[in-house]
Amino acid sequence: MKSLDPRVRRLPPAVELNQTLPKSPLDQFVTFEVFVQPKDGKPFEHEGIVHAPNLEMAYVLAKEAFTRRFDCVSMYVVESGKVNVSPLTEGDTNAYDLIEDVPGQAGEKESYEIYHLAKRGKQHVHAGSVQACLPREAMTIAKQKWYPGKGVCNIWAIRTADIRFTSPEEKDLWLTLPDKKFRDAAEYKGGEKLKSFLEAKGQQNLNHH
Amino acid sequence: MYGGGNTFESVKTDSIAQEDPIQLGLFEARIERGEKIEPTDWMPQLYRKQLIRMIEQHAHSEIIGALPEGTWITRAPGFKRKMALMAKVQDEVGHAQLLYSAAETLGKPRQKMIEDLINGKSKYSNVFNYPTFTWADCCFISWLVDAGAIVNQLANAKGSYGPYCRALERICAEESFHLKYGHHCVIYLAAGSAKQRQMFQEAINRWWPPMMHFFGPSDKISTHTQVLMKWKVKMGTNDDMRNQFLDMYVPKIWELGFTIPDPNLIKNQETARWNYTEPDWEEFKRVINGDGPCNKERLEVRRIAEERGLWVREALKSPKAEYVLPLA
Questions:
Q1: pLDDT tens, B125-169?
Q2: A54:B318 CB<8 A
Q3: Contact between residue B80 and residue A7 where contact means Cβ atoms under 8 Å apart
Q4: Hey, which end of chain A has fewer CB within 10 Å, N or C?
């Protein structure tokens, strides 16, 4: 193929794999939810999703997709299907009003991370963690802790054990972020160059007349 | 990067009559109050369909938009420009990922979107079907096509669908570097040698018609989209967006001593609108429908990438994986 794109010119034609491989019902990877902590002391916030074959790959891909540009000190990922979601409310209704209280369960408690959506269209933000045996119990305990408090229109409860966290030794992943000045709008100051160019142009025009 | 044009073909509003009137009333009241719609909310079929179409096209535009610039990375003048261009192209591909995810919350699988791009069923911004012959073409895209995209994206970020707004906020924050970088490149060409100035002038001459097409057909011939405006899917008319772009960037192009190949381009001081020669909308339609200088090549690059990666994805796929819609 005649092309300006080196990728097209350089590579031999791909094998026609489409014809040999039948499609499975699920022809894409599952998704993982990504949470980022922008600064020490600030809560983790939901940033978006990545598609990945497993939790570990999700972590690697999330680092590229979500923490390339802006401040980040820590990040974690969890499979979308492992997030327990409350009903979504509108207007002034608090999502905790719709949580049915579950009596305290007997048995070994586990840790759950609780996320709040304060306003539709915003990000889910980490509120804290609670100890519970079941996701629904975790929501009940969260209600005791944060209700009535500030308005919440959606709650997520994620079993802490399902999360792929950043380990202390991985924290250096983001140490070089501030050095990548070539990604910073403030590094492209054309003002001086433009000014001297315009002055020279003005001078030329004067000479012309 | 993204062109707002051509997104909405004829909207058949008949389906609205079949929607549950109570649900529809609640939905419209929520938008009226300025509250965002989230994935689990009830929404009219037409709203879902048009949003999928719009966000998907936006995603395709990002991923295809990376190609005309990407091919210049190895030839960008100097180490700094290479680093910046590489970062910019990486951002564009990242934006595609964010947007595919936002569209996916509405129920269309990402893989299906990629297939529809390759088989030509879904469209992307027309502007990327034109070739970048010189470094100056690449600078034109970085500065002015990105500028046009930002005009569209800032408007759309005020729309009603939560996941799209969140993606756009992030994208706009990243685009500010693209715009400053692009302007920086052009200032250096303008202040450079006669040859460099000529190179950028030629780039403007080549790119002006596609740039005018970028915002989509004129309101005079464009489909009526009142219901989409009411639902805050479409946030401004094509001509409004075009006018806003001309207002912000024509003075900056003229400031650098370049000309724009349209003798009728002038701002009407009374109406505060720009007069211009109506772009050739027949060409626009022709190129959208596949007959542009680079359509085949752009899709070929995507097809090759898709086919080459297939065995990796197949090998990594887990039979135990259970797909659920992404949450936000």
A1: 999 999 999 999 999 999 999 999 999 999 999 999 999 999 999
A2: yes
A3: no
A4: C
